[in-house]
Amino acid sequence: MLKKINITNIIMIILALILAVVLGITIYMSIPYKPQTYTIEETTELFENNSPLFHSTVNAILTNQSIWEEYVLNDDTTSIHINSPKDNSTLDRYFPKNQEIIKTFFTKTHPYSIDITNNQQITFNFLGKQQIWLEPQQIISYIYSFDQSFSDIKNNPNFVTQLDDNWFLLDSYQLN
After folding, report:
1. What are phi and psi of 15, to 5 degrees?
2. Is residue 7 part of a domain?
3. Is the pTM of the predicted complex or chain greater than 0.85?
4. Which of 40, 133, 136, 141 has the lowest tally of Cβ within 10 angstroms?
5. What is the β-pairing status of strands 121-128 and 138-145?
6. Is 122 within a domain?
7. How many structural domains is the chain composed of?
8. Contact 169/44 with Cβ under 8 angstroms?
9. How far apart are CA 49 and CA 60, in angstroms?
10. For residues 169 and 160, is the Cβ–Cβ distance under 8 A?
């Protein structure tokens, strides 16, 4: 004989599922993002192996009109930072497809941050591995510049290597 399913049991099952989803999202959001540390050689390999992902992330950022309008409307804005794949305050400015590209970039490469600057550069920052335990943390940066002059990059006192037309490697600077 089939047991009659009453409406109370159905409601209890639905409420249990909703609670499980809410709890799962809460736990996921409470886990802090942890960037990975790299040597210069490892970031070079990371860049070479994930070049299409770096380029698609740049395109996702460049096609976001609201970020660029913020620079035009607010002269005080010098840079915008994306600090994790959970950085909703910044990611909410992007279309869902572009959000997914940026989140995928964070998931696959584990950068320290992505900085979008009003001097027409997008900088992908990676934590450098500390050689000595008490040594200050270093940052290794890949810079995409869409300003063809590249003057402020080439005049940087840190070691800079031009990788291709618009990409530069800024070899470690100290994290303050």
Report:
1. -65, -40
2. no
3. no
4. 133
5. antiparallel
6. yes
7. 1
8. yes
9. 19
10. yes
**Residue 151 identity (one-letter amino acid):** S
Cross-strand partners of 124: 114, 142
Q: Please report whether residue 16 resides in a domain.
A: no
- Please report where in the chains the tokens 């970031």 appear, as a residue: 43
Residue 100's domain comprises 35-174
38 neighbors 88 (Cβ within 8 angstroms): no
Q: How far is CA 43 from CA 39, 59, 140, in A?
A: 6, 20, 8
pLDDT in tens, 25-78: 666 555 677 888 888 888 889 999 999 999 999 989 888 777 666 655 565 556
Q: Within a domain: residue 80?
A: yes
Which pLDDT score, from 0 to 100, does residue 2 have?
A: 46
End-to-end, the C-alpha distance of the chain in Å comes to 72
